[in-house]
Amino acid sequence: MSYLLYIKKQVLIEIGNSIGIHRPETGGILGCSKDGVISHFLFDYNDKSTSYKYVPSVDYLNEYMENNWYNNGITFCGMVHSHPNNAQSLSCGDLMYAKQIIESFNNLEHLYLLLTFVTEETVNIRYFKTFLNESHVIEAYQLCESEIHIIE
Ligand SMILES: [Zn+2]
Fold first, then answer.
1. pLDDT value at position 118?
2. What CATH number does residue 142 fall under?
3. Would the pTM of this model clear 0.85, i.e. be above it?
C-alpha cells in the first residue's frame, strides 16, 4: 500500500473556511478523482454533532455524493472532522466508525481521516490512512509531512 497522499490546495482552503471557523466536532467528506487525488470536499452543514462527537448526517451526504460526485467520476475516499486542541489523535470511536464505513462500501480499500485543530491563527491538520488488516482489525497510519503532497 502506498502511503503517499495527494490533496488539492483548494480542498484545504475549503476546510479552513468551513470547519476552520466552527466549533470543534464539525466535519465533512472528501472525494477523490480517478487519479487518486483528494479533489473535493463537502462541509456537513446538517450535522447532528454535540461538542463531544461529530455525528455526520449520513442521508444528506450520501444524497449529495450521488447527485454531484459519482456521475462525475468522484468517489468517496475520506472524512474530515475537528477536535478540540487537547485531543490531537483519533479516538476509539473515530476508529470504530472508520471500520463501519469501510465495511459498508464494497470497494473502499482504505479511508482517509483528516483531523483538524483550530487555533487563533491556524487550522492544523493531521492526516491518517485507516484500513482493515488481515485480521480485519482497523489500523490507522499517520502520514508524515514528506508523504503529503499539496497540489495547486
Ligand atoms: Zn474524533
1. 81
2. 3.40.140.10
3. yes
